[in-house]
Amino acid sequence: MCLAVPMKVTEIDGPIAQVEQGGVRRQARVDLVEGIKIGDYVIIHAGVAIDRLDPEEAEETLRLFAEMLGDEPRRA
Amino acid sequence: MTNLDELRDPVLLTRLSEQLRGMAVPPATLMEVCGTHTVAIARYGLRQALPEGVRLISGPGCPVCVTPQDQIDLFIALGGIGGVTLATFGDMVRVPGTDKSLEEARAEGVELLIVYSPMDALEAAARRPEEQVVFFGIGFETTAPAVALAILEAKRRGLGNFSVLCAHKLIPPAMMALLDSEVRVDGFICPGHVSVIIGSDAYQPVAERGKPCVVTGFEPADVLAAVRMLLLQVKDGRSEVELEYTRAVRPEGNPKAQALLRQVFRVSDARWRGLGTIPQSGYELAEEFQELDAEQRFGVEPPESREPAGCRCGDVLRGAIEPPECPLYGKSCTPRKPVGSCMVSSEGACQAHYRYRTREVER
Ligand code: SF4
């Protein structure tokens, strides 16, 4: 029930946005996320964007895994 | 990028598993407190990646499962009032109440809407002014903001036919309550999406009680990383809050959502299935929104509540037993014919164990 999925913001109209992922389109409230922009990835739960996903941190996570496994650093 | 398919890559998972299995660590029991983690662990067979002596157990992380019998009975009883339409998330529909489930109540004529968002329940109320729509406000800190938005919106629009049965629960107080129970936990895999709202700092009191906490994401590699981070803490005798899920969670959480929660709700004592009443572990509506409280609006007397005979969901939710230790598990209780909430809910520990049981073979 707490399932929450990353979706991309495609249109914004005040507190409401169209979000999309893998061909699924939904309407969601985005007024709990500061400074929302088209193209942002947000985490959608029960029709509400609960926050934004940070693409730089996602890259950082992959780097951390490489480090954990003692791999050569990926591209900087 | 954001789906991070890389974190499901079989090669990565195999390497992480091998690394984990090779760790020399003291025996430890780690608990996850989130239904989505429960499912990820079962689905990807992550227990097979654990070093000798390390166990993963489920705690009270499934919002449907922890909703106590009397709140379910009360909600069903509200549906018996003429002119009332019930609205709830789909996961709740098959959970057995004392006399019947919502599904059975619907077969007897109770009006029931299954909604994806509380906002859908609100719109249903707007479309049916002659009916009263009652929404079942269940869920943790992840879900409460969505319900709060619907409550604010109902008030703003002056919708006199929308109300909420408020049964929200808060995760950190439940974790603290577990520390005072007989169940031994050496570290917590903290819920990712609850933490998006409350922030990883919210687990500081748990860490201060000597229990390592790692907030992690939902890909199998995230969970394996969290297990490794926890085991390193246990091994070094540290107990800190660490954040693996940095792509979604900030230490301070989402301040806008927190302000909304403070506006609409008041923290109150709450009853949990299996854990009893835990002080300051739930929400009730704040003074200003009391008129939207279904319990006050309708004042029904629910039947005297009873747990399903023989069901040990309460023990499962406290981590006192694992699902297969329940005598009914896989016999009279299966996902097709569930006896208790933990087998009904797709995020319940019993259903997760059962559905993916072939992946739990001993290595
Ligand atoms: S197996 Fe069924 S009866 Fe046993 S604890 Fe789980 S839900 Fe309850």
Question: Helices and strands of chain B: which structural class?
Answer: alpha/beta
**Name of the CATH homologous superfamily of the largest domain in chain B:** HypD, alpha/beta domain 2
The CATH topology name of the largest domain in chain B reads Rossmann fold
Number of E strands of chain B: 11
Helix count of chain A, per DSSP? 1
What is the tally of helical segments of chain B?
16
Shape of chain B: globular
The N- to C-terminal Cα distance of chain B equals 34 Å
Output the structural class of chain A.
Answer: alpha+beta
Bound molecules: iron/sulfur cluster
Kindly state the mean pLDDT of chain B as a whole number?
A: 94
Radius of gyration over C-alpha positions of chain A, nearest whole angstrom: 15 Å
Largest sheet of chain B: 5 strands, parallel
Spatial order of strands in the largest sheet of chain A: 3-2-1-4-5
CATH class of the largest domain in chain B: Alpha Beta
Keywords for this entry:
heterodimer, A: 76 residues, alpha+beta, 5-stranded antiparallel sheet, 18% helix, 41% strand, B: 363 residues, alpha/beta, Rossmann fold, 3 domains, 5-stranded parallel sheet, 4-stranded parallel sheet, 16 helices, binds iron/sulfur cluster
Summarize it:
Chain A has 76 residues and is of the alpha+beta class. Chain A is built from 1 helix and 5 strands, in the order βββββα. In chain B, a hairpin with a 3-residue loop joins β10 and β11.
Give a topology summary.
The complex is a heterodimer of chains A (76) and B (363).
Chain A: E1 5-13, E2 16-21, E3 24-29, E4 41-45, E5 48-52, H1 55-68
Chain B: H1 10-21, E1 28-32, H2 35-43, E2 54-58, H3 63-66, H4 69-78, E3 84-88, H5 102-107, E4 111-114, H6 118-127, E5 132-137, H7 144-157, E6 162-166, H8 171-179, E7 187-190, H9 192-198, H10 204-208, E8 213-215, H11 220-236, E9 241-243, H12 255-264, E10 265-272, E11 276-285, H13 294-298, H14 313-317, H15 341-344, H16 349-355
Parallel strand pairs in B: 1-2, 1-7, 3-4, 3-5, 5-6, 7-8, 8-9
Antiparallel strand pairs in B: 10-11
Helix pairs in contact in B: 1-11, 2-16, 6-7, 7-12
The complex binds iron/sulfur cluster (SF4).
